[in-house]
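Section 3.1: Structural characterization of target chains.
Under the original work plan, the team committed to producing a structural model for every single-chain target entering the pipeline before any wet-lab resources were allocated. The record below documents one such target. The sequence was received from the expression subgroup and is listed exactly as submitted; it comprises 322 residues.
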Amino acid sequence: MPKTCSEAATRVSLNGVTMATRWSVTADVGPGLDLDVLHAALQAAVDEVDAQMSPWKPDSDLVRLNRAPAGAWVGLPPAIMEVLARAVQVCRLSDGAFDPAVGDLVDAWGFGAAREEPDADAIRAARGQARAPCHQWLDLDEAAGRVRKLGPLQLDLCGIAKGYAVDRMVEVLRRHGVAHALAALDGELRALGPQADGRPWPVAVESPQAGRRAVHGVVGMEDVAVATSGDYRRFMRLGDLRLAHTIDSRRGAPVLNNIASVTVLAPTCIDADAWATALLVAGPERGLLLARRLGLDVLMLLRRGNGIAEVGLGRFGTAAGE
């Protein structure tokens, strides 16, 4: 049953399946809102993102772009054009730490659609490819809604698409007159206003423990987004090494540093998602320099010996190590 949170608002929860995970919305709503219509609109929004940007769907716009020959213009719908434009910007601003031009490496290491475990021949082939950050090899004609690759580029948008999908859910909520909500997709969340009683939405920052759910801390959210990237949910082990599913294009291999997780707060979830990925790849020293230069709100949890150390910037700046 919905929980009454004030005389004028009722707490409701909506959820569904997309992108091999679940989306959810917790909202404080007024009377008269058709929840079935709202649920259908939310599901349609995330499904559109999945249909355009999934590397697993053979008919997605992303797969169509990846299959196109270098130099050929490919017409694309507005949503994926928006995501590609932001991906190129973050790639440039992060000096290539965020780089979606790693689709061949993602597949070769067993994290993509092609295979479920690393393939040595595929890894050697991917590493042998001429490679440059996507902002150097991707030409966007935003006015015409078209893109061309300037080299043998295979894109993977998994480091940004879920954040964009959360932003799309927030747009849907606003269109339906919802002013107090928390939208989530996997580890990406965005708060629309505070709760109806004026309190911020409490969101847990997970403790980076593989195979166990635990809370490291709680952040209060109001009109802000949060995303976390780390090595503790999806990873592989090679001997004593824990390799995160995020690919470092400079190494041609999964990220290998002492960052357990990076949590980023940003006005939009597309930015929180992309910058969490970028800082994880950049590593603690380079990542913190980049975050300081850009004024990001960041919490890094670092593996040191058998423990975890915090380094915080911005809203997280009271953490040890600042």
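The radius of gyration is 20 Å.
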